[in-house]
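Reopening: structure tokens for the zinc ion complex, inputs below.
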Amino acid sequence: MKNFYLWLEDLHALHQNTVSNFPTDRTKAEVREPKLSLTPMPENNELLVKANVPGKDDIYKASILFQNVNYQQLPKDKQLDLYHFLFTNPLNGHKFYIERLSMRGNNVKVDCSCPDFKNTFNTANYSQNALYGASSKLPSKRNPKNVPGLCKHLWRVVQELQQKGILIDSKTLTLMTYL
Ligand SMILES: [Zn+2]
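Re-run output (same inputs, fresh job):
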């Protein structure tokens, strides 16, 4: 029987791939604070995070599409618990009560407009079903083993989501910490 989970990537796997397969550690790079915008898509159990990330000469556009996201009814008493976060759409005031996203477990598709992502990860991420958007389908000299991963801008967006409490390392580990 084919194990289709082999074809899915979460942020934990992309991060591990990135730090263990390339000489430059992209997670240690200094990147300025990104501006995030979240688009909930409860009909598909997805959440799209788009970010403008300031670079040296340009503002790069990074995207992370989270899949298998759990949307739930806002509790009647409006008491939030540790497992969820509340997002209010600034355009129309709609409120979404969402289970915190996880480094391990939420499948993702990612993209960034920077040259590093285009030249290193675009084709590799595409081949693992972890690319958001169009693929160049060109083989990468910088990535001969075709390892999917994250550029420094995407990693900075991951850190920002963690700081805001939207993204946690692992649902199980976090629950154990609070017990
Ligand atoms: Zn980038």
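Residues 1-5 have pLDDT under 50 and may be disordered. The longest helix spans residues 115-127. Marking as resolved unless the reporter disagrees.
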